[in-house]
């Protein structure tokens, strides 16, 4: 699986378009369960991470969501203290680190010699970064000002540090880097949440920047919109929608991805389609798939040919129609798998979730490990790391009363600290990030100042 030819010439093996429902078993893809050298965690002697949370999902069956949200229609929710029942046992800083679940795609991009090949793998990584949100219908805990989170995965070749750099508006900054100086991935997110009566819409404002250091390339993009439907009644479901434009600032190549709204009959549920164009705006590859499942790449001419063939035998009244979600906002029944066009190359597929995921807030295997305290870790962490937050720890153990009490205590402590700062002369200053101009976009951004992994935490505040 190390040759580029194998990766990009991966065929579906289909004989015709009407064999669209396919299995992944014969597709070629870089294995995300392996380290970058192909060896397993056990062979490397790496700590065996947990596979389940200490406690099961806390039920919301006896909790009235409407009693809390009925006064919030059209409002921005980040300034409203929500009951702990709305949450999952992770901080938003930990949720951001889930972008790194498919880091093998970045390693893959680093190894490729062709710029268009690199772009399509980067595009797959951008899609994979939001894949963990599928069926995650609870919100993470809002980070406290100055809260941090570190994630070091030596077996996967990277380390990450994130910090809550602003409270109003809430801004989370992160910086991930290769342990072998192959890449840097960084950015900041200011989530805007609004309640619209039956749904909550999340706009993740902020820019993602991926630098492939060997190739002296920088890619930037923003994440799509996210909406959770049926907040009050019915089955909760999530869709992502909007246009994501990935720019290679070194070559001028662009990848434009359209995360499609599902439509009335669910025919576009979870679908992502787009294309890569070079500096002269010539289409080089078409990208398609589902953000909940897999992404493929195909030659534009072949794509248009197959598309024309499909239209010839289709119902002209249905072609090109666009519908809005019906009034009842129910989850449409969509296809279970991507309809693969013969001649396509598999870029990425989602890692299967554990069989007991529904009893763990629909966490992925990766998410389950994020709040774990490994042996000896506590003495290495700064006092601001969210693994040390008592409300999150209580919730993942299933103690709702303690989680709620600790959440209220921490929020009041933060309000008191803010009052104290406003009365004094000293302003709050971030510890690990500073505001700069992003050299690639020209917009304001947060930059990691370095030094975190030197383990010098003497001036960290006591926020818990």
Strand order of the largest sheet: 6-7-10-11-9-8
Shape: globular
End-to-end Cα distance, whole Å, is: 47 Å
Number of distinct helices = 10
Number of strands: 18
Describe the protein's architecture and organization.
By secondary structure, this protein is an alpha+beta fold. Helices cover 19% and strands 26% of the residues. The protein is built from ten helices and 18 strands. The strands form three sheets. A six-stranded antiparallel beta barrel has the order 6-7-10-11-9-8. β3 (148-153) and β4 (158-166) form a beta hairpin. The protein is globular. Residues 1-44 and 315-328 have low confidence and may be disordered.
Topology, element by element:
Blueprint (H helix, E strand, L loop, with lengths): L3 H5 L32 H4 L20 H5 L17 E5 H6 L6 H8 L3 H14 L10 E3 L6 E6 L4 E9 L4 E8 L4 E13 L3 E7 L2 E5 L4 E5 L3 E5 L7 E12 L5 E6 L11 E7 L5 E8 L3 E5 L1 H13 L32 E5 L15 H4 L21 H7 L3 H24 L9 E5 L6 E5 L16
Parallel strand pairs: 1-2
Antiparallel strand pairs: 3-4, 4-5, 5-6, 6-7, 6-8, 7-10, 8-9, 9-11, 10-11, 11-12, 12-13, 13-14, 14-15, 15-16, 17-18
Helix pairs in contact: 5-6, 9-10
């Amino acid at each position: 699986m190390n040759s580029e030819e194998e990766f990009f010439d991966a065929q579906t093996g289909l004989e015709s378009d009407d064999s669209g429902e396919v299995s992944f078993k014969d597709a070629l893809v870089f294995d995300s369960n392996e380290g970058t050298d192909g060896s397993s965690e056990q062979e490397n002697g790496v700590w065996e991470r947990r596979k389940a949370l200490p406690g099961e999902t806390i039920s919301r069956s006896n909790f009235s969501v409407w009693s809390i949200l009925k006064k919030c229609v059209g409002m921005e929710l980040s300034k409203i203290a929500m009951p702990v029942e709305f949450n999952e046992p992770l901080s938003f800083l930990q949720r951001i680190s889930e972008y790194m679940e498919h880091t093998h795609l970045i390693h893959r991009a680093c190894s490729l010699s062709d710029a268009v090949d690199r772009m399509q793998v980067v595009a797959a990584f951008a899609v994979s970064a939001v894949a963990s949100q599928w069926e995650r219908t609870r919100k993470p805990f809002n980070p406290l000002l100055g809260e941090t989170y570190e994630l070091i995965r030596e077996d996967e070749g990277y380390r990450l540090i994130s910090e809550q750099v602003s409270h109003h508006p809430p801004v989370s900054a992160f910086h991930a880097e290769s342990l072998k100086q192959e890449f840097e991935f960084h950015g900041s997110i200011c989530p805007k949440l609004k309640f619209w009566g039956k749904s909550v819409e999340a706009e993740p404002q902020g820019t993602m920047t991926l630098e492939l250091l060997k190739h002296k390339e920088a890619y930037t993009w923003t994440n799509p919109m996210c909406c959770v439907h049926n907040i009050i009644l019915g089955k909760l479901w999530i869709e992502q929608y909007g246009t994501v434009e990935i720019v290679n600032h070194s070559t001028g190549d662009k990848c434009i991805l359209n995360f499609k709204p599902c439509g009335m009959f669910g025919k576009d549920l979870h679908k992502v389609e787009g294309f890569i164009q070079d500096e002269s705006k010539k289409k080089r590859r078409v990208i398609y798939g589902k953000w909940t499942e897999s992404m493929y790449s195909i030659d534009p001419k072949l794509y248009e040919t197959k598309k024309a063939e499909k239209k010839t035998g289709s119902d002209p009244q249905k072609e090109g129609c666009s519908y809005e979600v019906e009034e009842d906002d129910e989850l449409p029944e969509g296809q279970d798998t991507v309809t693969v066009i013969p001649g396509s190359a598999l870029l990425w597929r989602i890692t299967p979730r554990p069989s007991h995921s529904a009893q763990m807030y629909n966490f992925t295997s990766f998410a389950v490990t994020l709040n774990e305290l490994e042996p000896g870790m506590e003495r290495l962490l700064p006092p601001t790391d969210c693994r040390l937050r008592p409300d999150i720890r209580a919730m993942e153990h299933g103690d709702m009363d303690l989680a709620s009490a600790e959440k209220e205590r921490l929020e009041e402590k933060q309000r008191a600290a803010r009052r104290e700062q406003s009365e004094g002369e000293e302003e709050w200053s971030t510890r690990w990030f500073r505001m700069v101009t992003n050299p690639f976009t020209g917009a304001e951004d947060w930059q990691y100042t370095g030094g975190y992994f030197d383990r010098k935490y003497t001036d960290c505040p006591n926020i818990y």
